[in-house]
Please model this.
Amino acid sequence: MSEANTSETAAVSIRHLSKSFDDVEVLRDVELEVKTGEVVTIIGSSGSGKSTLLRCINWLEKPDRGSIHIAGQRIGVHDDGRPMPVRELAKVRAQTGMVFQGFNLWPHLNVLHNVTEAPIHVQGKSKREAEELATALLEKVGMSQKHDSYPNTLSGGQKQRVAIARALAMQPAVMLFDEPTSALDPELVGEVLAVIKDLSAEGYTMVMVTHEMAFARAVSDQVVFLEKGLIIERADPETFFTTPKTDRVRKFLENHDTPSSA
Amino acid sequence: MSNWEILWDERAQFWSGFLSTLEIFGLSIMGAFVIGCGLLYLLEGSRKRLTTPLRIFIDGMRMLPFLILAYLLYYGLPSVGIRLDAWGAGVGALAVYHGCYFAEIFRGNRLTFPPGQIEAAQAHGFTKGKLFFRLLLPQIIMQTRPLLGNQLIYALKDTAFLVIITVGELTAAANSLSSTYFIPTEAFIVVIGFYWAISVTMEIIIKQCGRFSAKRGFDNV
Model:
């Protein structure tokens, strides 16, 4: 019970999380608490386990040990170790909105229907209610002119903005961003980052994996550095980027030529 | 009276054979489509003890000459106490046989389906049934459209086999006229025209459906 109480205020609460792929330990006893309204950025070199950590949060990867609570609800397994039935899992998953590196829009649906699909068919909203919400969200991400377009006609940046609106339409307790700009042409990165920045200003709770250091510094409340599945450093962005505690992070930041201020 | 005039006088027989062929074809491809989708659904994320027998069934059907299956259902089933009339056995055989082909076409396409889209659906709280019917199946059908069109033509041609189990369809009409008046060439040329007409109409419909999927970028892949 005490565990449930501590997670009550947290949007995401991760305890003792471990995960291996075959013999390789990708996450080792990870602890992370994301408060409502907080933006947490996960940084690390490739293979450090940061995407796996993010994907464990909505159970796209099943951790081997540990627990994850989303808005106070445990995901994936019950406290007595029983695996969660699929319907129940789907309900908890719907509390998270995920934005993928590769957009993963549904190509047979137009922009509007990509955004209304889950609210109508997962959450049971009425068509009208879902479309009103979608219209507002597409406006927020600057895509209101494209309701009737199909994903194959959009640029990468536009696709990603639609994907953000689609995730927001679930009205999730937390938004998960898995390298949202890594698949974009450099000149399209800005438009997506601008949208995410607006969301952080509006108080959305977000967990983000990114390689955009200046951006991480500008929007984060907490920065976490993963190395071989271990969190070796966590701090507010100012401290993290100006006075890192470990040599590993110092070296990483040097290689990423971080601008002195964002 | 020329041979063609004889056939013109007997046009009612062709017409009823044509309607019968259309009916058999329509019902059996609808059945085949449902069976194909059902098999794909059962193969989707199921356990091995279900998928292995299903795969054996599908492959078994595909390796069987259609005529043998029609014979089995019509002449073989009565020996185990199930008696189907020729029409029922014919439609049933066509539906099951081509349903397995549909399933195989769908399954092949399913293997190349981008996993990211499925993850996105799971992350948005979709469960298996909704994910299948709302996201997977529509895309798989759009993508396999040309193959499905091809399979429909095979199914149409297989309806002609049913003459052998005494179904009164188009080929049966030609057969009977050709032997009554001994004018095989003309009689069979007429039915070829009918089969071509159905095939061409089907091609046009399938092509029109292609515009629907092309708009969504499915025909560029």
